[in-house]
Every structure is written in C-alpha cells, then in structure tokens.
Design brief:
It is a single chain. The chain has 198 residues and is an alpha+beta fold. It folds into two domains: 45 residues, no CATH class; 136 residues, no CATH class. The chain is built from three helices and twelve strands, in the order ββαβββββββααβββ. The longest helix has 12 residues.
C-alpha cells in the first residue's frame, strides 16, 4: 500500500491498538474514512509479537537505483541566486510542481537505497560532484543538496531539506523528485553490507 502523496495535505492520527482494534489514542473511534484509504502504520518493532514477522520487517537490504555518473538536479529558488552563480542554474520542466530553477550535480558512484520491508528506504552515502562548485567535495546526496542551497540560496535560514522532495532526476525530458523512485523491490534487494554483489 503506497504512502500518501508527499505533496498532498496529510493528517496525523495518534492511535491505540488493543486486541487488534484500532481507535484514537483517547479511546474514541477513528473518523469516517473513504472506502479505499491508504495510510502508514508506524510502531515500535518490539510491539510485533511474532519474532519471524519482526525479523522479516526489520531486515535491512540495499538496492542500486541510479548508476554512477547519473545527473541529479537540486531545486533552488530563483529570486536570490548570487549573480556569479546565475549562469549555473537551469530552468527545467518538472513534475509535480514547476516554477523553480535547478542546479546540476552528478553521482560519482552508484546510488543505492537502504531499507527494510517495514521502513521506508533511505539513501546510502554516495560521493557527488557539483560542477558549479568545483572546490567542494560531497560525501552524499544530502550534503550536495545542502552545499548547493548554501551557495545558491544564501538568504535561506536553513539549508537542509528532504532530498527525496528537493533533488530530481530526468525521466522522458521531465524532472521528477527522487521520491518517485523511492522503492526497494524485493527481487532486486540484497542484505545490507553485501553491496559488492550489486
């Protein structure tokens, strides 16, 4: 079951589960939901009573999603880019939102996801090169995004962000966020720590 669209309005409902019955944390019933509703249930792994289920849901695996040399695009605001860096920003068609400029950087190794059946995958470290900032060395996509934001968006109070929403790849001429490929297919996944098998 896919999680809610990351760009849609969401509601967080604290719940309690007693003998398999789900209710709100205060004991009241859940609000009426549509017949087909997608959601995520996040709980402490120790609350899974069956050890085999707990082991299966927490076993980490890694999966290659992008090849070495893949171009990545960091989304930046267009209004406060320093004049010396403006030639390095590009306006590209993007989905699901548009109206931003983008700064290109490249993965210097294959980009991998690390995750488990019971947890959304995260990016493994991957050295990245930013052509517009050649003096900077980055050990991860997260760091590359932060460095680009610091340089291209100096007025921002914080230069961190969710790279699955702020970093894009090009598919069929359109930039899409990494969130769109944030999947760990069981058939392609291998135990974490055995990345040499990729």
């Amino acid at each position: 079951m896919p999680p809610p669209d990351s760009y849609a309005a969401t509601v967080r409902l604290p719940v309690r589960i007693s003998d398999g019955i789900v209710s709100l944390a205060d004991g009241s019933a859940l609000p009426a939901l549509r017949k087909e509703t997608s959601a995520e249930l996040i709980l402490d792994a120790s609350d899974i009573a069956n050890k085999a289920d707990r082991d299966r849901l927490t076993r980490e695996a890694t999966c290659e999603i992008l090849l070495k040399g893949t171009a990545l695009w960091a989304r930046v605001k267009q209004d406060d880019i320093p004049a010396s860096l403006r030639p390095h920003r590009e306006e590209k068609t993007s989905s699901p939102i548009s109206g931003h400029a983008f700064v290109k950087f490249t993965a210097q190794a294959s980009l991998r996801l690390i995750g488990s059946e019971g947890k959304r995958p995260v990016l493994a470290d991957c050295a990245c090169r930013i052509p517009s900032l050649p003096h900077i060395t980055c050990a991860s996509v997260n760091e590359a995004y932060t460095r680009i934001s610091e340089a291209f968006e100096p007025s921002r109070r914080s230069h961190t962000g969710n790279v699955f929403d702020c970093v894009f790849i090009e598919q069929s001429g359109v930039l899409v966020p990494l969130e769109k490929i944030r999947k760990l297919p069981p058939a392609a996944a291998i135990p974490a720590g055995q990345s040499e098998l990729l």
